[in-house]
Specification:
This is Twin transmembrane helix small protein. The protein contains 2 helices and no strands. It has 67 residues and is mainly α.
Amino acid sequence: MDLVFKYLIPVALLVVLVTLGFGLYALFRGGDFGRSYSNRLMRLRVLTQAIAVAILAAALWWRQQAG
């Protein structure tokens, strides 16, 4: 299971980073694109962050249980 978390944690963090980048791009681009996507992408970022935090918490719990 440690191997799963070894790859899952960086992937989750990368997804958060990419979502944040797209959200910031949409925010600063403005216009119709910004109005349509910036808020939606920032809400998606919050969701991906919550998932990443849950994965980190699960990894810490798993490591603590494994001893």
